[in-house]
Design a protein that fits this description.
The chain is 24% helix and 15% strand. It is an alpha+beta fold. The strands form two sheets. The protein has a five-stranded mixed beta sheet, covered by helices on one side. The structure holds zinc ion (2 copies). The site of one zinc ion has 7 residues, from helix 2.
């Protein structure tokens, strides 16, 4: 599949998204949508995006321990790396472009699903929520946004950034 590097957008080739085991790319229409969004993301940084995982056939997805309904099997997802830019920062800029965003230690997962889903599986930074595991009874409030944005933003400008960061951590999803 890589003999003829078919260009599918100004900066991406089809084989970059091919399944590691069989070389398939799955649904080409979905791939095209994904690539168009990746081009948008690329323009935010103006740096090459390395695709470390694109389409996965069901067999390969199982092998790498991907989620059962992984967006990778729909040709809607890519795990990406941008040299010199942390996965967290990539994720931050991806938010206006992708609905599905996952942060890992060494890459960022983005996908074109239609509903919002974001998770942070990185282990590098201190996990703010790790300490309240003991309060299992309180876990019923998990779906409620835990930080209510202060309406008087003018006076709280300093603390705002740190509290906002926390809200993006709420949804956990298994990925790979
Ligand atoms: Zn495969
Ligand atoms: Zn992924």
């Amino acid at each position: 599949m890589s003999k003829y590097r078919r260009r599918i957008s100004p900066h991406f080739h089809e084989d970059e998204f091919a399944c590691k085991c069989c070389g398939e790319v799955g649904d080409k229409k979905q791939l095209q949508i994904l690539v168009a969004r990746l081009e948008m993301l690329r323009s935010q940084f103006n740096k090459p995006i390395k695709v470390i995982s694109g389409y996965r056939c069901p067999k390969h997805n199982t092998k790498v321990g991907g989620a059962k309904k992984s967006q990778h099997m729909l040709s809607q997802a890519a795990d990406i790396v941008i040299d010199g830019i942390s996965p967290k920062r990539v994720a931050k800029l991806a938010h206006g472009i992708f609905k599905g965003i996952g942060i890992y230690d060494h890459f960022t997962h983005v996908d074109t699903r239609s509903y919002k889903a974001s998770w942070d599986h990185s282990t590098k930074e201190e996990k703010k929520d790790a300490s309240d595991k003991t309060n299992t009874k309180l876990s019923s409030k998990r779906s409620v946004p835990e930080v209510k944005e202060t309406k008087k933003a003018t006076t709280k400008a300093k603390s705002k950034t740190s509290s906002r960061r926390r809200t993006s951590k709420q949804k956990e999803e298994k990925e790979g």
